[in-house]
Amino acid sequence: MFNTVFKGQKEGAEMKAKFSKLLLAGLFSTVAVGAVAQQMLSIGTGGTGGVYYPLGGGMANILSNNVAGLQATAEVTGASVDNLKFIRQGKMDIGFTMADTAWDAYQGQGKFTDGKVNARTIMALYANDAQIVTVEGSGIEKLSDLKGKRISTGSPGSGTEVVAFRILEAAGIDKDKDITRERLSVAESVNAIKDRKIDAMIWIGGIPTAALTDLAATPGLKIKLIDHADVVEAMNKKYGPLYTKGTIPAKAYTGQDKAVTNLQVWNLLVVDAKMSDEMAYKVTKTLMENQAELVKVHKEAMNISLKTQGAASPIPYHPGAQKYFKEKGVSVQ
After folding, report:
1. From CA 221, how far away is CA 107, in angstroms rounded?
2. pLDDT reported for residue 53
């Protein structure tokens, strides 16, 4: 009888142990499945004082809230150049960039002579405005007055720096000899103007740019924007039809009394060509169809439109994005 009882207890213990192992295995299996299902996407933006960063944050929230199993995050970067290099290195999945920088990356020229970037557009966003900024009392009234001055041409790794150099070149200003050049972010540039450490800054971004709004609201200073649309023709002749003439309206910033003519270049949202067609389709569709949420983040999102797709991008669209736009009656290549 003792043996019978002992045998029953032993079998019960063995069954209990087996059940515990199966339960534990099931839990690990569930965790593993959940880990696979949860996909992370990183979005390369720009500095915190610009437009890319808040828009990228808005996009990350929209994607995380509307695409099952997806968690997206917005990352602070140097902007266009850095974002494309990060995509090439596999460190970023999505990146904001200006069209001219994207073209250089695709061709392996300019800042990308160390290797081409196999990038593809998923959305044309809005036209970026070149803004040459100073304050009253700097002695700068026109573009040629930048000679001999202390100028910030944008942070290293930014599309701003690329365009700034080209603007100066087209204006006959040697970036290395004719100015004292600083390589500052938009927020750092604004602080340097406030502290009188630089005389002017060149910035390429949406209107209004938060850091410039802050500069315009600074007591004792009056912001001034400089006309420069006359450089567009020379730049397009050398670099291709990447730039257009635009106008920054009066009162875009507090104290800016008159409209100025300027250079514009389109912003793109790009991904690695290796991104799956399904993911590129989901990202494009989700962002395009939640545009109203992006407008709440920054009013430049109002300019995202089906009408501007295709013509604004000098590099090919991702097949997943092509599929979405085709469904909407828009052909992009």
Report:
1. 43
2. 96
What is residue 21's DSSP assignment?
H
**271 phi and psi, to 5 degrees?**
-140, 170
| CA separation for the pair 28, 112 (Å, rounded) | 44
Sequence-distant (6+) residues with CB within 8 A of 171 are 143, 144, 146, 228, 231
Q: pLDDT (tens digit, 9 = 90+) per residue, 165-179?
A: 999 999 999 999 999
Strand segments, DSSP code E, in the chain are 39-44, 70-75, 94-98, 119-135, 150-152, 180-182, 200-205, 223-225, 244-248, 260-272
Q: Which amino acid is at 222?
A: K
Residue 19 has pLDDT above 70, yes or no: no
pLDDT tens digits, one per residue of 262-282: 999 999 999 999 999 999 999
Q: Start-end ranges of CATH 3.40.190.10 in the chain? A: 40-125+267-327, 128-265
Percentage of the chain exceeding pLDDT 70:
89
Q: Enumerate residues 6+ apart whose C-beta is below 8 A from 284.
A: 122, 123, 318, 320, 321, 324, 325
C-alpha to C-alpha distances, 129 to 66, 214, 248, 263, nearest whole angstrom:
31, 18, 8, 6
Quote the tokens at residue 76: 């602070």
CATH: 3.20.20.70, 3.40.190.10, 1.10.287.130, 3.40.50.1580. Which one for 128-265? 3.40.190.10
- Phi, psi values for residue 6, rounded to 5°: -65, -40
Please, what is the average pLDDT of the chain?
90
Tens-digit pLDDT profile for residues 48-90: 999 999 999 999 999 999 999 999 999 999 999 999 999 999 9
Report the pLDDT averaged over residues 220-245: 96
Pick the CATH number of 40-125+267-327 from 2.60.40.4070, 3.90.226.10, 3.40.190.10, 3.40.50.300: 3.40.190.10
